[in-house]
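Per reviewer request, we include the raw input and output of the structure prediction for the construct analysed in the revised manuscript.
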Amino acid sequence: MYLVLVFVVGALTFVCGQAHPDHGTGCDVAIRLEKLLADLTSRVDDLEKQRQVDHKKISDLRREIDEIKIENHGLKTELDDMTTVRTRRSLNPVPQPSTLDKEVDDTQAPTVHIKNGTRHTLKEGDTTLVDTGKTNRVGRTRNSPSDNKISHITDRVGEFPRDPTAFYARMGNNLNDVVRGQVIHFDKIVTNNGEHYDKNSGVFTCAEEGTYFFSWTLYTPNNHWVDSELVKNGEPIAWFRTGDSQFYEASSTTALVKLFPGDRVWTRVRDGPYGADLVALVSMFCGFKI
């Protein structure tokens, strides 16, 4: 419609230039149409400026929503940890010393009293008593050195986790019109040992101090590009660019990060043009404790 109006104005202007001076009607119409065209152009410019302002407001709102989600996830994690501690304490109360423990002095070897008045002392490591029918009271026997070694080895083996912290998640659906600061959600979980990665917020929360390996891959359509970054507690620590070519393109990078309990790690959009998309085909995010 806009092009048709421009064509009509041009035609009338040409006719006005060829018309006789006494015939000014066509010229008046051309002048009015030119003014109308100028007004429409001005309105289009105003609408474009307003669209850019609205787009910026939407981007800011998305960023605030993502920050609120991350904060809520952190609070939920703290609440879950507190609930777990209380549950463990209620299920495993601190044992109280028994009456037998109070009666027997661990610094002395236990004794056996026989009915005929003879007193015998048990040697350390004894586990069998002969003629138990004549015994009035038997104290505890100490563990042998071999028992202590076995217990020590068992305790050490129990310190190693059977299933170390690790996660691997893929992007379930394409992300269209991504904006700067937007959290990239990888919501299709493949592996999540320890349940420390939240698919709803896209955030990994550290539960154990150590060095962690992270990697993420993004896939963009042709003529699209996106800069993404890995974030630790809101601070960028690694980034890369993918796309900006005539073909579909995938890019990835890795990072080694020292984490402490409560630290949070996620990926987000660092920069990109308006209307940039991310394709879910091979986009992924993973991490594990070394």
